[in-house]
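Internal tracking record. Fields below are filled automatically when a chain is submitted to the structure queue. Please do not edit lines marked as system-generated. If the sequence contains nonstandard residues, flag them in the REMARKS field before resubmitting.
Queue: standard
Priority: normal
Entity type: single polypeptide chain
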Amino acid sequence: MQLGKLYAYTGGRPFDPTRPCVVFLHGAQHDHSVWILQSRWLAHHGYSVLAFDLPGRGRSGGSALATVPAIADALATALAPLGSPGFLLVGHSMGSLITLELAQQLGTRVKGVALLGTAFPMRVVDALLTACRDAPDEAMQMINVWSHSAGLAPFAARPGNPGPGFNIVWQNLRLMQRIARVNGPAVLPTDFAACNAYDGGLAAAESLKCSALFVLGAADQMTPPKAARALIDACRDPQVVTLPATGHALMAENPEGVRRALADFAARVLA
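SYSTEM-GENERATED OUTPUT FOLLOWS
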């Protein structure tokens, strides 16, 4: 589905503006496909779904915007004409920061926010920022390793390789490489610089007028659970789900745990 310049996957069902809508926002150097399992389930269980490709990424037009607020502005413009009775905003990593900004713009239309693999501040070390700009292939390799729990060997039987021809570690790397090939090399350094520079997280969390769900990976090396504490404490109605033995790529490593947490939360806030 196209909303202006932005593409959004609807979970395999036509978008229905009369239903409450779950909006999915991906993280750095990714696209809507990271949500494929959770978005399809919700789309077939009573909700409308919009899993966006952020500006300048995947199938969305334009360039990769340089700041978290600018990306939220573009999404707010795309969502404004929709008549959905309420939104649940779901964001992973960089997408969780965008979710906080977008919730401020949409106001009372937002019935809940779910922040996965989040942290504030979401600092990126200078060496990685430099690698993203000057050595992107090596940077993507490093990011891909850190995005998965240390106990998940690339060729392990499960969950790393649940079936022939499928491996979540290499699948994630190939997605990052495809974004670089299709959307250009500027996306990677732009995304990580945007995470590093964003300073509005606590103010945005404190301003929330809705419930907030935090889904965290106990084995997350990129945004460890303790890094979300400031955001959790700033929210008026936080709920925390910590998934055991799960890394930063928690939608792939623990898809059922993420699905269950989102389904339970959606049933509560979108009732």
